[in-house]
């Protein structure tokens, strides 16, 4: 495997306040590959911002090592131990290659869109004409050419975030850190900004670290996910692994917010068919990932076992080009046959969760 573009190892960040010690990040290691859109999900206070601020040393860790693009930015084995630290001058230069965008855009309100983006080029070696061309190119990239001379107060939230993205890209960064960048936006604008980030990832090869409390955002564009709680990463994996087989309760909660399957189960549980489930019926949830979707499994249940499947709800999503499905189904037939049908489904990598009935299985 190639070298990760970002390697954080054994990172601890401890804040000392008067009488309190806050362990904001506890022994976290994360490796992010070039071209990843790496989602870090967690509730407020989980330590996400503190962790990503470590990448460009806006937050110096108490201990651990920070390596970006094969260059050690920081290394300290313990709080008291010897520290290796990149020089201040080098850090300033390297930071320009790590763009950041935030929830509240952080634009200069007295400056126009063009001036806001140009500001990011103040230390650039480009000539004035090159800077002007660069800013024009960036505004075209984020689709804001017609707003170039407007002020932030004249823009919508989504447009302001586009200015912030153009500014973050001014020095051709290889990494973009997005800290809750869509949290203040409505769902439609959120999707437009996420689509723009995805485009930048694909077209520019930009590595994106996406911190958010919204699993929906992660689901739209991330290929990898880490879930943070109390300063620790409690679960991580590819987007598909996390969505298909979450193990931690918190991960399941986040996924639920992005799929609403629990809500569907609750609603459907009140339907007469489920309320008045017969003794030979069982209400199940079938979950599957990938090719299984294409197989006529449901028809096979009747053909092979004489078990009928009444589909009450279905949700199939495409995550990273792979179908991920959930079906809420009432199966009915002889207990033995239903049992065989369920084990056949399991053989085909369909996870079967009995939600109601089935005491005779
Ligand atoms: N400079 C600081 N001094 C003291 N405590 C801090 C500091 N920065 C963060 N913390 C604390 O560290 C913990 C993690 O905060 P952090 O902002 O990283 O969480 P988060 O997951 O990003 O949440 P949010 O989305 O609310 O920012 C919190 O308890 C926070 O109060």
TrEMBL record:
Gene3D superfamilies: 3.30.70.260, P-loop containing nucleotide triphosphate hydrolases
Gene Ontology biological process terms from the UniProt entry: amino acid transport
Record flagged with keyword 4Fe-4S: no
Gene Ontology MF term list: ATP binding; ATP hydrolysis activity
Residues annotated as domain ABC transporter: 8-255
Superkingdom, taxonomy of origin: Bacteria
Keywords (A to Z) from UniProt: Amino-acid transport, ATP-binding, Cell membrane, Membrane, Nucleotide-binding, Translocase, Transport
UniProt key word Amino-acid biosynthesis: no
Residue runs in coiled coils: none
PROSITE patterns reported for this sequence: ABC_TRANSPORTER_1, ABC_TRANSPORTER_2
CDD domains listed in its UniProt record: ABC_MetN_methionine_transporter (cd03258)
Name this polypeptide is given: ABC-type metal ion transport system, ATPase component
């Amino acid at each position: 495997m190639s070298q990760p573009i970002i390697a954080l190892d054994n990172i601890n960040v401890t804040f000392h306040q008067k009488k309190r010690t806050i362990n904001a990040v506890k022994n976290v290691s994360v490796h992010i590959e070039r071209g990843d859109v790496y989602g870090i999900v967690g509730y407020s206070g989980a330590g996400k911002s503190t962790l990503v601020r470590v990448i460009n040393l806006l937050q110096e860790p108490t201990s651990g090592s920070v390596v970006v693009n094969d260059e050690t930015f920081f290394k300290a084995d313990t709080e008291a131990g010897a520290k290796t630290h990149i020089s201040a001058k080098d850090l300033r230069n390297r930071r320009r290659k790590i763009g950041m965008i935030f929830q509240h855009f952080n634009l200069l309100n007295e400056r126009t869109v063009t001036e806001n983006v140009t500001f990011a080029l103040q230390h650039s070696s480009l000539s004035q004409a090159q800077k002007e061309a660069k800013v024009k190119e960036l505004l075209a990239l984020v689709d804001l050419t017609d707003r170039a001379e407007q002020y932030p107060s004249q823009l919508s939230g989504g447009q302001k975030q586009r200015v912030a993205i153009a500014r973050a890209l001014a020095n051709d960064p290889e990494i973009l850190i997005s800290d809750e960048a869509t949290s203040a936006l409505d769902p439609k604008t959120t999707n437009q900004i996420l689509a723009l980030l995805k485009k930048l990832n694909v077209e520019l090869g930009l590595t994106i670290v996406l911190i958010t409390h919204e699993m929906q955002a992660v689901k739209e564009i991330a290929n990898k996910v880490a879930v943070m709680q109390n300063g620790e990463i409690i679960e991580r994996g590819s987007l598909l692994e996390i969505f298909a087989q979450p193990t931690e309760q918190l991960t399941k909660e986040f996924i639920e917010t992005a799929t609403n399957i629990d809500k569907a189960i609750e609603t459907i549980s009140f339907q007469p068919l489920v309320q008045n489930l017969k003794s030979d019926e069982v209400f199940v949830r079938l979950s599957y990932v990938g090719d299984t979707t294409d197989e006529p499994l449901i028809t096979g249940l009747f053909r092979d076992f004489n078990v009928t499947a009444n589909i009450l709800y279905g949700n199939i999503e495409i995550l990273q080009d792979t179908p991920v499905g959930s079906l809420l189904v009432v199966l009915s037939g002889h207990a033995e046959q239903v049992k065989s049908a369920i084990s056949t489904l399991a053989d085909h990598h369909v996870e079967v969760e009995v939600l109601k009935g089935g005491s005779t299985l």
